[in-house]
UniProtKB/TrEMBL annotation:
<keyword id="KW-0312">Gluconeogenesis</keyword>
<feature type="binding site">
    <location>
        <begin position="114"/>
        <end position="115"/>
    </location>
    <ligand>
        <name>substrate</name>
    </ligand>
</feature>
<feature type="active site" description="Tele-phosphohistidine intermediate">
    <location>
        <position position="9"/>
    </location>
</feature>
<feature type="site" description="Transition state stabilizer">
    <location>
        <position position="182"/>
    </location>
</feature>
<comment type="pathway">
    <text>Carbohydrate degradation; glycolysis; pyruvate from D-glyceraldehyde 3-phosphate: step 3/5.</text>
</comment>
<dbReference type="GO" id="GO:0006094">
    <property type="term" value="P:gluconeogenesis"/>
</dbReference>
<dbReference type="InterPro" id="IPR029033">
    <property type="entry name" value="His_PPase_superfam"/>
</dbReference>
<feature type="binding site">
    <location>
        <begin position="183"/>
        <end position="184"/>
    </location>
    <ligand>
        <name>substrate</name>
    </ligand>
</feature>
<feature type="active site" description="Proton donor/acceptor">
    <location>
        <position position="87"/>
    </location>
</feature>
<dbReference type="GO" id="GO:0006096">
    <property type="term" value="P:glycolytic process"/>
</dbReference>
<dbReference type="InterPro" id="IPR013078">
    <property type="entry name" value="His_Pase_superF_clade-1"/>
</dbReference>
<keyword id="KW-0413">Isomerase</keyword>
<keyword id="KW-0324">Glycolysis</keyword>
<dbReference type="InterPro" id="IPR005952">
    <property type="entry name" value="Phosphogly_mut1"/>
</dbReference>
<dbReference type="GO" id="GO:0004619">
    <property type="term" value="F:phosphoglycerate mutase activity"/>
</dbReference>
<feature type="binding site">
    <location>
        <begin position="87"/>
        <end position="90"/>
    </location>
    <ligand>
        <name>substrate</name>
    </ligand>
</feature>
<protein>
    <recommendedName>
        <fullName>2,3-bisphosphoglycerate-dependent phosphoglycerate mutase</fullName>
        <ecNumber>5.4.2.11</ecNumber>
    </recommendedName>
</protein>
């Protein structure tokens, strides 16, 4: 039986200022650093020995992983970073204040943009300022694979190949895995491993910096789920 831990990054500067973030590479806030360190303390108390870490190519998740692993004395474990664990791309909403956007377009529209499974946000064009197409960390990708905006469905469709190719084989080998990622990339993974419906996933939220510990059997069925702290 393998253990799988999800941690959404600690509070970011844009979580604090209530801005749509997506692929914008904002840092952790002071509170976010505290949350990440606290996650490490909670994991240490659980006594989990990790074999492999996975994270995105965004600073807030990478730093959360490192603060947490340092607190539990496991900063040395192998880690892999992938764009496939990035936050969902929020398109042209990135950078906008969520409350101001709700005043302009209405609460319902903003709720649909944030939580509907298959509604896309307004898209960014490749030539728009802030497009990820110009960012060196995505230069190895086919330009058509660099999104201009994603819903949860599209996010799931790019997270799951990585799960199947890399993470699932580790777990089947009995390795304990920690994934430090983002609210929506982790909601996508949660939907997949817990087989949550398209409607019910709208109500699932991930708290910043809170480790979620799964025990999985050899077929990767969930045997238990425990939110720490
Ligand atoms: O702005 C974002 O990128 C995400 C996570 O902070 O927000 P939401 O919870 O609205 O999907």
């Amino acid at each position: 039986m393998a253990k799988l831990v999800f941690i959404r990054h600690g509070q970011s500067e844009w979580n604090l200022s209530n801005q749509f973030t997506g692929w914008v590479d904002v840092d952790l806030s002071e509170e976010g650093v505290k949350q990440a360190k606290n996650a490490g303390k909670l994991l240490k108390a659980e006594g989990i020995e990790f074999d492999q870490a996975y994270t995105s190519v965004l600073t807030r998740a990478i730093k959360t992983l490192h603060y947490a692993l340092e607190e539990c004395g496991q900063l040395w474990i192998p880690e892999t970073k992938t764009w496939r664990l990035n936050e969902r791309h929020y398109g042209a909403l990135q950078g906008l204040n969520k409350a101001e956007t709700a005043e302009k377009y209405g609460d319902e529209q903003v709720h649909i943009w944030r939580r509907s499974y298959d509604t896309l946000p307004p898209l960014l064009k490749e030539t728009d300022e802030g497009s990820a197409a110009k960012d060196r960390r995505y230069s190895h990708l086919d330009p058509r694979a660099v999104p201009g905006g994603e819903n949860l469905k599209v996010t799931l469709e790019r997270v799951i190949p990585f799960w199947e190719d890399q993470i699932a084989p580790d777990l089947i080998d009995g390795k304990n895995v920690i994934i430090a990622a983002h609210g929506n990339s982790l909601r996508a993974l949660t939907k997949y491993i817990e087989d949550i419906s398209d409607d019910d996933i709208m109500n699932l939220e991930m708290a910043t910096g809170q480790p979620v510990v799964y025990d999985l059997d050899e077929h990767l069925n969930v045997k238990s789920k425990n939110k720490l702290g």
